[in-house]
Each structure stands twice: as structure tokens, then as C-alpha cells.
Amino acid sequence: MDTFTAMEAFVRVVETGTFTKAADALGRPKAAVTRLIQQLEAHLRVKLLHRTTRRVTVTPEGMTYYQQALRLLGEVRELEATLSQSRRGPRGRLRVESSGTISRLLLIPALPSFYARYPQMHIELGVSDCVVDLLADNVDCAIRGGAVKDESLVARHLGDLCYWLCASPRYLERHGAPLHPLELAGPAHAVVSYFSSLSGKENPFVFVREGERLEVRGRSLLTLNETNAYLAAGLAGLGVMFAPRFVVEPYLASGELVRVLDGWRPEPRPLFLVYPPSRQLGAGARVFIDWLTELFASRPNLWRDDG
């Protein structure tokens, strides 16, 4: 038995909760993963997992072994990454998740500079506003907006995105410009709403002015859960919308959108890079995170409301 391989298989079973998902993540047949766990238990002479037809649970002894195995596997990967990087620079695959607008407008246009530094890296970029299970989907890190409610993840705060409230000229011709946020909840106006793919709930419009915070649930004709589609709805005149400054700036410059409710600012939205605590960051992940931090720091229009 290859103890290191068996240890990796056991850790992945615990993290994903099933032999099937663990096998998929490891790229091995399910039978091979099952056999590795059986050999590991026989070698240790201890029961690590309780198995039923529906679920897998960890025994107390298994949890102790899992915690120590995480530490040992992390140290081995750290050593390998350090030696590999010293010889030829970071290399390998990195799975990243990000929203449509951040991917389209920030990440992808800047990636040539990343590959110029690290030509042996390969990024698998999952583009979606859906919140994925990082462990089950074998994701190394994800860029997420809003508060990180999953306490099992490590969250690195990248900054607070500046949002602007806008409407299309077509909408303003029909409805006029709102003068107060509460008008958005009345019959004279409509908003483009966004709902969370995780909770299914619509996000309210939250405004701040001189220390005052106002939450408004506007009257909406259309509710979406994808940022590019949300922008398209605003451009089509389906309601007042608020979106990150970096998203709407080009359309404000072209006249396709107009800022409204001057003096009331949408509440900034925190942006985080998250990753599982059990996944030791390799050299590739570390250089990507450093590069990403540099990229966002070089874009003041992400964070500043000075327009």
C-alpha cells in the first residue's frame, strides 16, 4: 500500500462526504478509492469511517487521523512546491471561480500579464454567479462579493466595491428621475432586482448618506441572478439598477446609462478571495493570489466613489 496515496484518498473522502465524489476529484475509479481506505484501516488496525448506503461519517479516531493527515500532506506539498518553484517557477493547474462581470472585465483582459510572469501555469476559470462547493468541485479559490457566511472558508478581503445607481435614458424618458430612494418602492418606478443563487432571496437596494443607512425593496418587473444579464436589463430600460462602478463607467461615458439619486450612494460591497482551510496553498495558488491582489490594487475605480 502507498500510504501517502491512501492518506490523500481518505482526506478527500472526508472533505467531499462520499466515495464517489472523492474518486471524481482524485481521477480514480471508486473501487480503487474504496480499496485504499480498506487497506489504510487494515494497516492502522482502526476504523476510520462508518459507511451506510446513504452517507459516510468519520469515527473519532478517523477525525484525529484526518487532522494529522491534513498537516502532513500540507507540509509535503509545501516542500514539493518550494523545490519545484526554485527550479523552474510555479507550474500546474489552478481552478478558480469568479462572476461573469469580474471575469469578463477584469480577470481575462489582465491574464496575459499573469502568463508573461508564469508561463507554465494553467488556469481553469469557472464563470458563474452561483456559489459552488469549493471542496466538492475541487476548486482552489474563488472571488466572491458580499459577506462570506461559510465559516469553514479562509477569506482574504480584497476591498469594498464601489456601486453606482443608474438608469437608461429610455427609462428616464418614461418615468422621470427619482428624487429619493423611497420612490423606488412606489408605483411610479421600477427596479431591476438581483436574487441570490444560494438563498433565492432578492437583494434589497441599500443606500448610505452622511451616516444614514436606508434599505429599500423596490418594485421590480424582472429579477435575475447573473451579473451580465442584470446589466443588459438595465440597458434595456427595464428599471433602475445599481452595479459596480467598473461595470457601468463605459456606458455612462457613452450615454447609454445615466446616474440617478445624486447624493445617495449604494452601500459598498466587500470583495473576498476565499479558499478551503484544509487546502494548503501551493506555489501556483500563492503567485496567483499575489498577482490578483496587485491587479485589484491598481484599479482605483473598483473602490473609490469619486466620479
Automatic annotation (TrEMBL):
InterPro entries: LysR-type_TF_proteobact-type (IPR058163), LysR_HTH_N (IPR000847), LysR_subst-bd (IPR005119), WH-like_DNA-bd_sf (IPR036388), WH_DNA-bd_sf (IPR036390). It comes from the Bacteria. GO terms for molecular function: DNA-binding transcription factor activity; sequence-specific DNA binding. Keywords: DNA-binding, Transcription, Transcription regulation. Residues 1-59 form the HTH lysR-type domain. GO terms for biological process: DNA-templated transcription. It holds the Pfam family LysR_substrate. Belongs to the LysR transcriptional regulatory family. This is Transcriptional regulator2C LysR family. It comes from Corallococcus coralloides (strain ATCC 25202 / DSM 2259 / NBRC 100086 / M2). The lineage of its organism: Bacteria, Pseudomonadati, Myxococcota, Myxococcia, Myxococcales. The gene is yhjC4.
